[in-house]
C-alpha cells in the first residue's frame, strides 16, 4: 500500500510539474519577444515621422483652413486661398504662416503613430475574425474590411490626442491682435482646464468621432485598394516586379485623401466651431465694427449644424474646403509614402496591411 501511495504521489507531482512547464511555455508565447517589441517601436516611429513631415509641409494651408472655418461672417478677412495666404504673410510674416505648427506636430506625431499602428493591428484582427466564418478561410482584406479597420484606427488615434487638437485649434486661430493669448500648448491646456473644466478639452469630440469614420476609413481603404488594383492589373506599365514606384504611391495617397476629406469635411467645420465655444479671444471671431454679433453658442453637434446653416447657409459647411483640398492631396500622399519608406529604411515590412 505504501508503495502504491508513493507511486500515486509521484504521478501527481509529475502532473503538477508538467502543468507548470506548460504554463511557462504559454506565458513565454504570450510575452512579446524583443523582435516583436522592436518591430512595434519601428512602426510607431515610422508613423510619427510620416505625420510630422506631412503636416509641416502643408502648415500654412492648415492654418488658413482653420481661420476660414471660424471667421466671423460679418467681418471677412480671408476671402480665398491666395488672398488669405498673402494677408497672413503681410500682417504676420513667415512665422504667421507656421503659427500653431509646433502644437500641431506635437499632436499629429503621436496621432499618426497610433493611427498607422492601430490600423495594422485592427486589419489583422478583423481579417482573423472574418476568416473564422465558414467558407472564408482563405479570404483577403476587402475594401469594406479596410474601411472598418481604418475607422477603428481613426477613432483610437483621435480620442487619444483630442485635447491637443482642441488647444492647437485655438493656438492657430489667435493673432497678435488678440486681447489674450496662450503662450503655448501646455499653457493652453492648463488654462482651459482651469477656466472651462475638463469637458472643454473634448468639445466637438462627437462630430470628430463621426467624421473620422469616413475620413480615416476611406483614406486607408482607397489607398490600399488602389495599390492592390494596380499591382494585380498592372495598367499602363505602372508596376514593376510587383512594386509601386514613389510617384504612383503618391497618386494613390492623393486620391485617398481627396475622397476622405470631401465626405467628412462638414463634420470638421462643426467640430472646429464647437471647440471655439467659450473662448471669445480669437481675433478671427471678434469683429472690428460695432455692428457685429457675438459669436454663436452651440448646445451640441446638431444645434451647431442647424445654426450654421440657418445663419450662413449650406455653403458654410464647406468653408475652407479649397485650401483644405490643396493641403490634403499632398499631405495624405506624403504621409503614406513617408510611412512606407521609413519602415523600409528601418527594416520593417513595407505593406501596411501585412
From TrEMBL:
PROSITE patterns associated with the record: SOLCAR
Solcar repeat extents: 38-125, 141-229, 244-345
GO BP field: transmembrane transport
InterPro entries per UniProt: MCP, MCP_dom_sf, MCP_transmembrane
Keyword Cell cycle: no
Keywords from the UniProt entry: Membrane, Mitochondrion, Mitochondrion inner membrane, Repeat, Transmembrane, Transmembrane helix, Transport
Pfam family, one: Mito_carr
Lipid bilayer topology: Multi-pass membrane protein
One GO location term (cellular component): mitochondrial inner membrane
Keyword Translocase (UniProt): no
Compartments, record wording: Mitochondrion inner membrane
Family the UniProt entry places it in: Belongs to the mitochondrial carrier (TC 2.A.29) family.
Protein name, entry field: Solute carrier family 25 (Mitochondrial phosphate transporter), member 23/24/25/41
Amino acid at each position: 500500500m505504501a508503495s502504491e501511495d508513493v507511486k500515486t504521489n509521484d504521478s501527481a507531482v509529475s502532473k503538477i510539474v508538467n502543468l507548470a512547464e506548460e504554463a511557462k511555455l504559454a506565458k513565454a508565447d504570450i510575452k512579446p519577444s524583443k523582435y516583436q517589441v522592436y518591430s512595434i517601436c519601428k512602426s510607431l516611429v515610422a508613423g510619427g515621422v510620416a505625420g510630422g513631415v506631412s503636416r509641416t509641409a502643408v502648415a500654412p494651408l492648415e492654418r488658413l483652413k482653420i481661420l476660414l472655418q471660424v471667421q466671423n461672417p460679418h467681418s471677412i478677412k480671408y476671402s480665398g486661398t491666395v488672398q488669405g495666404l498673402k494677408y497672413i504673410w503681410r500682417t504676420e510674416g513667415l512665422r504667421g504662416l507656421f503659427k500653431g505648427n509646433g502644437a500641431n506636430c506635437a499632436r499629429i506625431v503621436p496621432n499618426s503613430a497610433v493611427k498607422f499602428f492601430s490600423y495594422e493591428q485592427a486589419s489583422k484582427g478583423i481579417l482573423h475574425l472574418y476568416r473564422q466564418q465558414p467558407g472564408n478561410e482563405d479570404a483577403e482584406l476587402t475594401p469594406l474590411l479596410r474601411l472598418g479597420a481604418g475607422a477603428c484606427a481613426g477613432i483610437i488615434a483621435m480620442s487619444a490626442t483630442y485635447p491637443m487638437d482642441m488647444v492647437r485649434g485655438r493656438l492657430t486661430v489667435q493673432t497678435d491682435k488678440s486681447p489674450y493669448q496662450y503662450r503655448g500648448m501646455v499653457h493652453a491646456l492648463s488654462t482651459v482646464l482651469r477656466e472651462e473644466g475638463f469637458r472643454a478639452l473634448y468639445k466637438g469630440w462627437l462630430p470628430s468621432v463621426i467624421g473620422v469614420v469616413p475620413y480615416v476609413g476611406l483614406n486607408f481603404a482607397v489607398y490600399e485598394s488602389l495599390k492592390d488594383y494596380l499591382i494585380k492589373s498592372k495598367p499602363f506599365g505602372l508596376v514593376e516586379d510587383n512594386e509601386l514606384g514613389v510617384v504612383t504611391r503618391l497618386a494613390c495617397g492623393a486620391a485617398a485623401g481627396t475622397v476622405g476629406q470631401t465626405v467628412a469635411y462638414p463634420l470638421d467645420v462643426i467640430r472646429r466651431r464647437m471647440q471655439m465655444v467659450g473662448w471669445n479671444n480669437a481675433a478671427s471671431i471678434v469683429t472690428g465694427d460695432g455692428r457685429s454679433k457675438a459669436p454663436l453658442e452651440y448646445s451640441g453637434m446638431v444645434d451647431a449644424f442647424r445654426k450654421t446653416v440657418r445663419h450662413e447657409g449650406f455653403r458654410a459647411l464647406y468653408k475652407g474646403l479649397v485650401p483644405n483640398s490643396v493641403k490634403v492631396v499632398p499631405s495624405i500622399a506624403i504621409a503614406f509614402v513617408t510611412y512606407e519608406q521609413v519602415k523600409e529604411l528601418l527594416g520593417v515590412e513595407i505593406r501596411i496591411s501585412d
